[in-house]
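Notebook, student rotation project (T.W.).
Task set for the rotation: take a protein with a known small-molecule partner, predict the structure of the complex, and write up what can be learned from the model alone. Partner molecule chosen: nicotinamide-adenine-dinucleotide. Sequence and SMILES entered below by T.W., checked by me.
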Amino acid sequence: MRLQGRRAVVTGGASGIGRATALRLVDEGAEVWIGDIDTAAGEAIAATSNGRIHFRHTDVTDADSIKALIETADAAGGLDILFNNAGAGGARERIDEIAAADWDRTQALLLRSVALGIRHAAPLMTARGGGAIVNTSSVSALGTGYAPIAYSTAKAGVLHLTKLAAAELARHNIRVNAVVPGFITTNIFTRHLDVPEDRRQLANQVIAGAAARAQPVKRAGRPEDIAAAVAYLASDDAAFVTGTHILIDGGLTIGTRASWDENEPSLFSALEAFQ
Ligand SMILES: NC(=O)c1ccc[n+]([C@@H]2O[C@H](COP(=O)([O-])OP(=O)(O)OC[C@H]3O[C@@H](n4cnc5c(N)ncnc54)[C@H](O)[C@@H]3O)[C@@H](O)[C@H]2O)c1
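Predicted structure of the complex:
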């Protein structure tokens, strides 16, 4: 019960990583306000939470909407924790074909939303002596080949924003950190590829199978893997941790595949023929 009596806002809390995190924060004693565009799913979670989770329709591309969500949670007794997590795959086009409006839309969803969340939470946290902010980045911030370019650029921005905000807000006792998920089985992939709702479960099984073979740890990442890291960063166990990130990727970014997959040909295995 590390978060007993704390109030938290979780954006994108109606599904996947946000949903698992809302449930984890409640398990650790917090009261949670979910902000999401998916009203049906958000209300369903709130309805089964014994009053510990509240839902407010929120579009994180709209500054007033984010502000209203944060102020609602704060009005209940003071905001302690903000998890800036809402997101989607964004524009799929490559750099030599993307339209300016699609680039802007993706940055607004994945990067500006995080900046605005911090913007509106920080004064309220300052007024009550401090708080903890956690932002969702992605392994796509660290390298190529994981996600489209607009998404990956935004997620890299989230990492740097996390450091800069941590530096600016440390004097107010506000910590700012990020989580960097690898492949986590959620609906983000099927939504991004417009898989019809009735085929999403099957598609998610295929994705989970592929994810389990893509990294050293031989199982797909789960939303709960990320929720555990967020709960830690939000808690006093992380009181001396700010301006950094936790990579939760099953080893996906360790290095070349040949370093962990014995079936993958490497430079050395190619030279074995000459021994
Ligand atoms: N699943 C992964 O493998 C993975 C990896 C790295 C990073 N992430 C990031 O994790 C975060 C959560 O994604 P997820 O995998 O849980 O996906 P998800 O689709 O299960 O959940 C995303 C949630 O965000 C909500 N959302 C989308 N646009 C919104 C908006 N404009 N305003 C408010 N809510 C909005 C959706 O309705 C949904 O409930 C995202 O930022 C995503 O980029 C996911």
